[in-house]
Design a protein that fits this description.
The structure holds two protein chains of two kinds.
Chain A (H helix, E strand, L loop, with lengths): L17 H8 L4 H24 L5 H24 L7 H15 L3 H13 L18 H8 L2 H16 L4 H6 L5 H23 L4 H22 L12 H4 L7 H6 L6 H6 L8 H8 L10 H17 L18 H6 L1
Chain B lengths: L2 E7 L7 E7 L2 E8 L2 E6 L13 E3 L2 E3 L6 E3 L5 E3 L8 E2 L1 E4 L2 E6 L1
The chains are: A mainly alpha, B mainly beta.
Amino acid sequence: MSDYQATNAASSGISVPKKNLKALMRRSDKPGLIWLAQWAAFLLITGYGVYLSIGTVWHWPAMFLYGIFLTVPSYALSHECAHGSAFRTRGLNEALLWISSVLYYEEPNHRRFAHARHHTYTWIEGKDAQMPFATPMNFKGWLLEITGWALYVYETRLFIRNALGKFDAEVLDYTPASELGKLKWGARICLAIYAALIGMAAVGIMWPLWFIIIPRLLGAPVMLLFTLIQHVEMQENDVNICKSTRSFSSNWLGRFLYMNMNFHIEHHLYPMVPFHQLESLNAEIKDQIPQPDPGFIRTNLEVLQVVWRRSMGGSTQAASIRQAPHMINTPEVQEMS
Amino acid sequence: MTNWVLACDTAEIDEEDLIRFDHEDKTYAIYNTDNGFFATAGYCTHEVQHLEDGLVIGNVIECPLHQGRFEISSGKALSAPVCEDLVTFPVKVEGDQVYIQIV
């Protein structure tokens, strides 16, 4: 791997005084436990709505709302626990990595190693293990991504192959040989859990269907809209994280659901800084990094406009979000010249 | 053949911290912990990341890129994604100077 340079703060020309960085890196259980209690409260409230709505026309909207609170935080917590930074206590990180990853639909050990590779080589083609969509993205690619279809196909295949011990070349590349057994048994345990949930629904035990399976499927697009805008339309094959990655503004609900990962440039520059310190990290380095793009809805709408116009052969210049130069195509200007 | 090499002054490393030390074509990490000074190989055994900006917590160094942990005194890998131990090097302090023994 010596022919590649890791993507990090140094490769991006960003620096923070060491004492300040060490203060930001400090682990703590308290913020994670508070976040966990808030998540549980949201799930109880919205889950009660699902319970009350069974048999009414409100059942599906209630499952959608509950599904957002189930799915987006599952993804965010799995991510933070894979970094080992959600909690100071390692056991808490590991236990919640398992629970949240199973909900998110990814084997926890694979999650850890694939995501580590994503950080080492952020959007370096052929090296980044977590950038599945083709770029520049068109509308079909966008649809496959945000419906969750691409994720389900990829993960299902991976679950089966890993459970059988038939590891893909890329899995072998980013997973230490000593950990492959954990991947295999992790995949088998996950598949057993999923089979049990589906089996319960099949024999008429409906709570897994109403409170896990359908809400997870309904919440997936919202989760995937969060993850999509982290890197889409940005620069591939550049070790400067400020060019490959996007931060975006967010209100308190978005920051809660996504565990502050709207500060995504900040997170990639210093992945050891826990979620509850990212706002402080932003204050420390905001003069060295690009301004965040507009909020979650605005950024996603602009991405959708861009990919739609790209599919229709129109201009792909976004109104306000950051784009890599080669993502921008202005055919009408070219014709005039 | 072994030889002791002057790595740094003791005052160059803050308490519960580490610095990078490059010598010939090798890179090392020199630590100041509650239990004294230690030295290990400078790069994480997982993936291309120097430990220089890592977090020292007691006798543990946490890699800044993926948060894998090693025991500083023994180099033992403690938590995934790191699985391979760090090589360690003997250290001695003479006056206010830190020396490491390089094979």
